[in-house]
Design goal:
single chain, 345 residues, alpha+beta, Structural Genomics Hypothetical 15.5 Kd Protein In mrcA-pckA Intergenic Region, Chain A, Pseudouridine synthase, 3 domains, nine-stranded mixed sheet, four-stranded antiparallel sheet, 17 strands, 27% strand, globular, PsdUridine_synth_RsuA/RluA, isomerase, EC 5.4.99.-, RNA-binding
Amino acid sequence: MEDYTPELQEEDADGLFEHHSFIADKGQKPLRIDKWLMNKIENATRNKIQDAAKNGSIFVNDVPVKSNYKVKPEDVIAVRFEHPPHENLLVGEDLPLDIVYEDDQLLVVNKPAGMVVHPGHGNYSGTLINALIFHFDNLPNNSSDRPGLVHRIDKDTSGLLVIAKTEVAMAHLSAQFKAKTSEREYVAIVWGNMDEEEGTIEGNIGRHPKNRLQNTVYLDDDADKGKPAVTHYKVIERLGYVTLVSCKLETGRTHQIRVHMKHIGHTLFNDERYGGNLILKGTTFTKYKQFVDNCFKVLPRQALHAKTLGFVHPTTNKFMSFESDIPDDIQECIEKWRGYSKHME
């Protein structure tokens, strides 16, 4: 799935590099800037934000402010440091790669849950890109200067990714993803018993207006705020208060399946960012709560796996398709729900 990718930041006139920039909403109520930024910057603690303010790194309308500054409507807020963003300083790391396929043009990797695809705020090492640039020389950069990366999946989503090894492969594969001719199928456990056996979710996806760590669906009058997104889903198995579904992506927006499923009332199981780590369906019995908590322990992440990946090879022009087994944590969670749903019958 595509991610929001800021351009490489340049030094400003004061010799500082911009790491984050925001514009406060027109309806913004007065709120301390340290609290305000905690809702905007992933993995940022209040202490870190207060330290940045003490060091003169937080600017409002180009003026440094203290952490008790109250954010006002349409304030232009920036966080600037003397060093460039860490995500621009790529270092190779000897990390294991689960390579499903490789030739001179590309490779297909099976990413484990918990591994970030590319460095970003709060995750500067241990990423897939750190591993790739250690194991492979001269990987081509994509349009966001990320070596080898044609597409991405979220940190806590497991599954298949294709990596370009040459400029030809990067151009060819990127064009396929843009033209929506690549094939991607995910499996997910979602809350609730879905009404239909299959369906299509359409709705533009963009940043949530109040929580930058989430995306949301924009419809009708607000449709111009997001980018078009289409997800096709099909029920694989009904498991009582949850459903195992297959999702095929026509587009690749950030958190697309997670956002679309929440939009239709079927949030992904244990998707903390979107509220799926709460008991959204089921009974009030204590035993049921214990059962769900046990499922969360077995599967401590959103129940989403990139199972199938298909594309045309950039030089042979042959269609290639790859499949990855459902990982143990999701499989164990499915088994638990199977057992529980049989007792419900």
